[in-house]
Every structure is written in C-alpha cells, then in structure tokens.
Amino acid sequence: MPNRILDLLRQGQPNDAVSVRGWVRTKREQKEFTFIEVNDGSSMAGLQVVANQDMPGYAEAIARINTGAAVEISGVLVESPAKGQRIELRAESVTVYGEADPETYPLQKKRHSFEFLRTIAHLRSRTNTLGAVFRVRNAAAQAVHHFFQERGFLWVHTPIITASDCEGAGELFTVTNLDLKNPPKTKEGEVDFGQDFFGKRAYLTVSGQLEAEIMAMAFSNVYTFGPTFRAENSNTSRHLAEFWMIEPEMAFCDLLGNMELAESFLKSVFKHVLETCPEDMAFFNERIENTVLETAENIINSEFARITYTEAIALLEKSDRTFEYPVSWGLDLQSEHERYLAEELFKKPLIVTDYPVEIKAFYMRLNDDEKTVRAMDVLAPRIGEIIGGSQREERLDVLEKRIQDLGMPIEDLWWYLDLRRFGTVPHAGFGLGFERLVQFMTGMQNIRDVIPFPRTPLSAEF
C-alpha cells in the first residue's frame, strides 16, 4: 500500500523507501532536476518531491506533469535542506495516471474566491481551505459517534421519508409518485394524496426526533446522526436545504441532565478536533478567523453559564445596546441578542432555559407556571444558538391539550401519544445542525463551504 503523506510528514525518516499517490499542487523545473509538490488529501501540507534528470523516463514524465495531474511517485526519503520542511522524497520512478491541461484546469496556484469555488464543487476539495474543512468535518463526525458510543447510546437510523412535520414549521419537501402533469383530484379539487405511493402526503424529514423518542422508550439512550431537509427559500450564509442533524434522546432524563450532556458533548467534540487536526485548525486561525483557537479553548475550558429566558430578557432590556429586533418577554431571541449575551455579557457559552410556551414546539414539557416550557438553547460566542433542546412532555393529558390548542391533527400522532399511554417516563433530548457546528469550529463565514455539495435554492448541480 502507498504511504499517506500525513504519516510521512509526521513520522517518516531519512532512508525510508516509500511510495505516494496524489495530485500535483505545483511543479518547478530547474536545469538538472524538478521540484514537485504532491498532496493526497491526508494533510494540509504536501510532500516535496525532487526528481533528478537521471531518473528513468524523466523527460517524458515531467512533460506530462502539471498542476492537477494525478501521480504515483516512489523513492527514498532524504533530509530536506529547504526551510520549513523536515524531509523530502527523492524520486526513483514516476507514474502519471491522469494529466491536467494547464490551459483549462481551473485550480491554478492563485487565490480563488469561495463564490467561484462553489461553481466547481467537483474540484474545490483540492484547495487548502476546503481540504482543511472536510478533514475537520470528518474528525468532528468521528468525535460525535465516539462521544455517544462510549456512553452506551444506540445509534438510530431514523426515516428520511416521513408523514409528520416535527417542528410544525411547514417548510417541507413533498415526496410524491403521482403524475405531476395529471394528478388525481378530490371532490374539492385538491390533489388526492390518498392515491399516492404511501396513501397519504409524505415529506422529506426535518428531524428524526419523534422517531428517536420511540427508540429511547426501549433503549433508554439513543442518538440520530443523518440528513434532514428544509424547504426554506433562504439565500443566506446560514441556511441549507439539506443538512445533517445530531439528535440524542434520553429516557429517565430531565432538563438538568439534558444541559449537562449538551455541555459535555460540545467540550468533547472540540477537544477531539483540536487533537486530531492541529495543522488545519491553526490554518483557520491564521487565514480565516483569528479567534478560532481561542473560541475552541473557551468551549473546552469554560463552565457554561446558565440563565432563564426571563433573566435573559431582563439583561437585554438593561443593556445600553440598540438592537435591530425588539426585546420583549414573549418574543424569541434573535441572533444579535444571543451573540450579545454570549460574546459581550458572559464572554463564554451559556444555556438559556424555560422559554415562553407560545414560541416553542408542542412536545416540550409545560412548567408549573403554565407560561413557560422546559426548553433550552445553548448559545456560543460568534454564532449564537448552536444547540436547541428540551425536556419532552410525558403527561398524556397535557400533551393532548397542547396538540389540540395548536389545531394540529391529533389522529396523525396516535403513535406518539401511545408512548405516553404505555410506560411513559420523563425524557429529554436536543438537536444541533452538524454544518453549524463545523462552521463554528472553523470560522468559515458561509455554511455552503462546510458541506461538500450544498443544496440551496436553485442550486443542486453536483
């Protein structure tokens, strides 16, 4: 097997016979030899290769090599006299798998805007920044699974096609097998989804939470980690139509246990990424956002502050800041309010709890004051809300009344109500968008640059 360049840069020793495969970043021809930088995606840095003109097939290979070409190079590691690199590869043989025409290859050695790179998503992963993003994304995903698995959580694969709108947001993608040119109609002239594939209207899921609650009622502690979809026609740096969600659900758990798990989770994931991708995180700190490392250390080492929504409103009303959006009890906190609390007032992450019932979802447990629910949002400097969760309503009568008060079709949730009829327990959970987490970690300004193939309005090219 060829060697990974990351392993060679960290542990390779002079006189080691090695072979690397990757893509050429740069080629610099000298009179008697050529410098070639090869990168295989395993690390930010590439490996410098020196090919001398006495190498068999030298002239032919060098003529075919340009930026973007795919190569395999075998040889011996030697100490590098160049500044900033410990070793380099003295080539003994070069195989060119695929050439790249320098006249048409779009990733020449110069700076490209992120907007331009989104138009070539099939090639942008070869750049330094996007390569670093996707290595951090991989490490974060690994950390998510490790955190829950070592605590005995069961990973649950919840359905992508669903008939329920968990959040009640109504911004759903419809899944249909009907003839769109001539769909069947009801007597009222509406599309008759009763004749569709599932016998009812179906959607792409916005959340796996309700199904995770089902599984938690048998396995105690579960989590989901999969794609979710929102048909929100927003062309902003914060929205995607397809994104990944992490959603743990814990039986025999209240809001306090939920908060403690959320705080431990964030600390664990950040710590793993810093340990696994130090070069990439240093790059983000230097080139993208100079508070990336400080923010990570703040998450890992700070004890999260905890306040109620009512206390948060009072603090915002007392501040001398003029906000774009009004501050008043009963209104949801906007990003500017959340960031003020986390960045300027507390200067660290905080958890806000007990929100007004009117601005939260139907499944959140009603407090004794009947005005607030046991909800929580984790707010972080620079991004605002990063996690949202709650203790769930486990009392059948209270949940039924809440569903009816909201005018939701109670018959569609018969199975959800059954969980309260047969062995109900206090339970809680939270959710966070994985892309928001990666964006927060890396300092990337646009969420479209932390997922390989972003799905946004009028954009599904790759």
UniProtKB/TrEMBL annotation:
Statement: the UniProt record of this protein carries the keyword tRNA processing: no
Any one cellular-component term (Gene Ontology): cytoplasm
Catalytic activity: tRNA(Asn) + L-asparagine + ATP = L-asparaginyl-tRNA(Asn) + AMP + diphosphate + H(+)
GO molecular function annotation: asparagine-tRNA ligase activity; ATP binding; nucleic acid binding
CDD domains (alphabetical): AsxRS_core, EcAsnRS_like_N
Domain called Aminoacyl-transfer RNA synthetases class-II family profile: residue spans: 134-452
Residues forming coiled coils: none
UniProt keyword terms in alphabetical order: Aminoacyl-tRNA synthetase, ATP-binding, Cytoplasm, Ligase, Nucleotide-binding, Protein biosynthesis
Pfam families: tRNA-synt_2, tRNA_anti-codon
Alphabetical list of InterPro entries matching this protein: Aa-tRNA-synt_II, aa-tRNA-synth_II, aa-tRNA-synth_II/BPL/LPL, Asn-tRNA-ligase, Asp/Asn-tRNA-synth_IIb, NA-bd_OB-fold, NA-bd_OB_tRNA
Compartment(s) of residence: Cytoplasm
Enzyme class: ligase
BP terms from Gene Ontology: asparaginyl-tRNA aminoacylation
EC number(s) from the headed UniProt entry: 6.1.1.22
Family, per entry: Belongs to the class-II aminoacyl-tRNA synthetase family.
Subunit-level organization: Homodimer.
Protein name in the entry: Asparagine--tRNA ligase
